Amino acid sequence: MESADSHWTALAGHPSARSDTELGIDARVQIGESGVIVFRYVLRGEISRVRIPSAKPAQRADGLWKHTCVEAFIRSPDASGYYEFNFAPSRQWAVYRFSAYRAGISSVDLDTPPEISVRRLDNSLEVEAAVRLHDLIALRDAPRLQIALSAVVEEESGTLSYWALKHAPSEPDFHALDGFVLELATQANR
Predict the structure, then answer these.
(1) Rounded to an integer, what distance in angstroms lies between the CA atom of residue 171 and that of residue 54?
(2) What is the pTM of this model?
């Protein structure tokens, strides 16, 4: 199957996070011929020191970023709006549409909910989520996508750390446009 995909790349913890837990996070994104975007995240290290939400029915939920979850942000290079995806190890999810930087937020109704799989091993946690590009109306005809990948990790102490491909220079801000560092061709441009 031909696809557009990124290579595995490491997310960096935000410098303001103080953590005693040894962790690393790798992520990648792939767009298949069928128009499915697949996000993959692997957390490695002292997973026993991470609060991982227990499995729940796969359904929409708000506030997932308050606990361990992985996130993705997608936009067309020529648009001011973007989508935010939250995928929790509980298999709960959320999709939001913004008309501009942190403005005009709305929930997105998907024809097909994301497919989320989670695998926990002694020293790793793998989260994979697949979303149909066709469900994202503002991106249907985009020849290329700009993508930001990120994660929030809640330690057993309740401390949150913030991970991204590229951080904003001050406080953690996954919405910052300079964090959209991956660019992939869509089916419309292959």
Answers:
(1) 29
(2) 0.92
Q: Which residues of 83-96 are buried (b: 16+ CB within 10 A; e: fewer)?
A: bbbbbbbbbbbbbe
pLDDT, one tens digit per residue, over 23-42 is 999 999 999 878 899 999 99
Q: Is 104 left (phi over 0), alpha (psi -120 to 50) or beta?
A: left
Nearest to 116 by CA among 70, 147, 149: 70
Please give the pLDDT value at position 69. 97
Model confidence pLDDT, tens digit, residues 157-179:
999 999 999 998 888 899 998 89
CA distance to 112, 113, 118, per residue, from 59 (Å): 11, 8, 14
The three-state secondary structure class of 154 is strand
CA separation, residue 50 to residues 54, 64, 91, 130, 153 (Å): 12, 15, 17, 24, 7
**CATH T-level fold of 22-189:** Immunoglobulin-like (2.60.40)
Which residues lie closer than 8 Å to 176 by C-beta, 6 or more apart?
101, 167, 168
The CA distance from 10 to 30, in Å, is: 16
Provide CB contacts within 8 A for 161, sequence distance 6+: 13, 14, 17, 19, 23, 152, 153, 155
